[in-house]
Write a structure and sequence with these properties.
The complex is a heterodimer of chains A (283) and B (293).
Chain A lengths: L10 H18 L1 H10 L3 H5 L14 H9 L2 H32 L5 H11 L5 H13 L6 H25 L3 H9 L4 H12 L1 H17 L2 H6 L8 H11 L4 H21 L1 H8 L7
Helix pairs in contact in A: 2-14, 4-14, 5-8, 5-11, 5-13, 6-8, 8-11, 11-14, 11-15, 13-14
Chain B lengths: L2 H36 L2 E2 L7 E2 L3 H7 L2 H17 L2 H12 L6 H13 L2 H12 L5 H8 L14 H25 L4 H9 L4 H9 L4 H16 L3 H6 L11 H11 L3 H33 L1
Antiparallel strand pairs in B: 1-2
Helix pairs in contact in B: 1-14, 3-8, 3-11, 4-8, 5-8, 6-8, 8-11, 11-14, 13-14
Classes of the chains: A mainly alpha (283), B mainly alpha (293).
């Protein structure tokens, strides 16, 4: 291991080290800690300009209830889920197919297709903005859930293809040879060999894709207009504009938007990190 | 024999590849190409497109706002180059197995899963010159906090620092994964030879992290160039366009001024800058794969 591990019996040393880490961690998260603290401030304190002093009254949860009762937050959350969940499903299906083909078949143009999938994912979003928006307007999907679902499925399929291709390519080759020698068709290989083995990869891909789509802001403001379909990120940015001085509410809203990805990350940290680092690290 | 059985050697993979490839091809690749074409027209987004050749580019190259945005993109890029070394530093700090470190690591990771738009909101509040925590800290030292987001000399740096936060986290995650895959024998051999500290890091550890370091560098460069969310949420390019970047300028010109041809030209310039890095990334990735095979 590098750096050299501290000796297990050096308790003093380990205690000091951990204290230093804790201090750096607090500094690291300071902007977030400030938002969390503000989200628990009462309206009286805010009106009195008392943001950081001892609170006059404790308002645990008050701001969080207000965000839901006085803004369209429920609607935004529901919209984000209606967009993100079908997107995840679509991406998993499409990328299992593309990943299987691009890892197990050799044909002219395969490398080019693969490079386009990967490279397309690194493009600046603005280079697609005008045609995608125009397309959605023309097929009358602009300002509907479908506009965002179609775009996100298409875009995320790029990264997901890289992900699934690498995962399937790393599966033991004997399984495929055994299936083939038994006369299984390619479709049977996909169904009976690949799909049961890629389940852990699909779990990782699902949480990554969900997080990417939940956190998207650019396409939310480009492809939607009304509160009825607007996802949480765009919704909250709107609130920030409208409620300039009500930082206690904006702070509570920010925390609410942050919770789903953070919780999923904590529950499935290993999968999440394995997904993000794929390709760079073996093993 | 039916057509299906005779052709299933290629028919199955073709059928499986088609949905994903067609969707990606139409929505992502074709749109990109179409933008290049639109940049040669004048277009309000609804009426007919009028061919103007390179007029949009001529206008762009005479536009001071374009140079401001371009300069800011360079500032973003230069600052984002700090993300890999800082991410490595934190990774080295937390790569110890002490009780509580697992939780500390998880908490260090949090900025990575926050939406960039939320990061923008979080830092707007942090920088607030009257009530923000930064102002409080300045006052504790007897100083007055600068109004970072309304000062045209500080605003870009303020916005970049906000965006750097999740970027450093991303690099830290990559390096931690790399550190967990070090070849113990080589490290052990280095220790036997008396290597430690900086020489050990420089000559024994870093060479083993070259793949991760490359990925960290590539995602940082690309992330810096296509920054949009944080700028949009924190400043909308202001004050007076001083914190705009190409991505935001493009959005502003298209959506607010209905100048889609001009917007497409800005997007094309950004695309041409980024394609250099994208091709560089793809080339290295494919070459690494070819060497392995």
């Amino acid at each position: 291991m590098y750096p050299r591990p501290l000796a297990p019996d050096a308790r003093m040393q380990r205690g000091v080290y951990m204290t230093i880490v804790a201090v750096i961690l607090v500094l690291w998260l300071l902007p977030l800690i400030a938002v969390i603290a503000t989200s628990f401030r009462s309206v009286e304190d805010i009106l009195a300009g008392n943001y950081w002093g001892w609170p006059k009254s404790f308002a645990i949860g008050e701001n969080y209830i207000d965000v839901f009762t006085e803004t369209a937050m429920w609607r935004y959350i529901l919209n984000s889920l209606i967009i993100a969940l079908p997107t995840v499903l679509g991406v998993l299906v499409l990328s299992t197919f593309t990943g299987f083909v691009l890892s197990k078949f050799r044909f002219p143009g395969a490398t080019l297709i693969f490079a386009l999938f990967v490279g397309g994912n690194f493009l600046p979003h603005q280079i697609m903005m005008i045609p995608v928006r125009d397309l959605m307007v023309r097929v009358e999907l602009y300002n509907t859930y479908f506009a965002l679902i179609v775009f996100h499925v298409a875009f995320q399929t790029g990264f997901a293809t890289l992900f699934m291709r690498n995962f399937i390519a790393a599966l033991p080759g004997e399984l495929f040879e055994a299936a083939r020698s038994e006369g299984a068709s390619q479709f049977q290989v996909l169904w009976h060999v690949v799909i049961p083995l890629v389940r852990p990869a699909l779990a990782a891909l699902a949480i990554l894709t969900f997080t990417f789509v939940w956190n998207d802001y650019f396409w939310s403001i480009v492809l939607t207009q009304s509160d009825a379909v607007k996802p949480v990120t765009a919704g909250l940015a709107n609130l920030k504009g409208e409620w300039m001085s009500a930082w206690n509410l904006i702070a509570a809203g920010t925390i609410i938007v942050a919770i789903p990805p953070v919780v999923m990350f904590f529950l499935m940290q290993k999968h999440f990190i394995a997904g993000l680092t794929l390709g760079a690290v073996k093993g | 024999m039916s057509f299906w059985i005779r052709n299933r050697g290629w028919a199955t993979p073709a059928l499986l590849l088609a949905p994903g490839a067609l969707l990606f091809g139409v929505v992502i690749i074709a749109s990109t190409v179409q933008s290049l074409w639109i940049s040669l027209h004048q277009w309000d987004g609804m009426g007919p497109k009028v061919w103007v050749g390179f007029d949009n580019y001529r206008e762009l190259f005479a536009d001071r706002q374009f140079y401001t945005a371009l300069r800011n993109n360079v500032i973003w890029l230069a600052t984002f180059l700090l993300a890999p070394p800082l991410g490595l530093a934190i990774a080295l700090l937390v790569n110890q197995s002490i009780k509580g470190m697992r939780l500390a690591k998880s908490l260090f990771f949090v900025p990575l899963v926050l939406s960039p738009a939320m990061v923008g909101v979080i830092y707007t509040w942090f920088y607030d010159p009257t009530y923000g925590l930064l102002a409080l800290i300045f006052r504790a030292f007897g100083m007055e906090a600068p109004a970072i987001l309304s000062n045209e000399h500080l605003v870009t740096l303020g916005v970049v620092i906000a965006a750097l936060w999740p970027q450093i986290t991303f690099c830290m995650v990559l390096f931690l994964a790399g550190l967990n895959n070090l070849d113990e024998e080589i490290i052990g051999a280095g220790r036997v030879d008396g290597a430690k500290g900086w020489p050990m890091l420089r000559h024994v550890v870093l060479p083993q992290l070259s793949q991760v370091a490359f990925l960290a560098l590539a995602v940082s460069v690309i992330g810096a160039l296509r920054s949009f969310d944080v700028v949009s949420v924190m400043t909308q390019g202001g004050p007076f366009g001083s914190s705009s970047v190409l991505a935001y300028l493009m959005y502003e010109q298209s959506i607010f001024s209905y100048r889609f041809g001009y917007g497409a030209a800005i997007a094309t310039i950004l695309f041409l800058i980024m394609i250099v890095f994208i091709v560089w990334y793809l080339w290295r990735m494919l070459r690494a794969e070819a060497l392995e095979a």
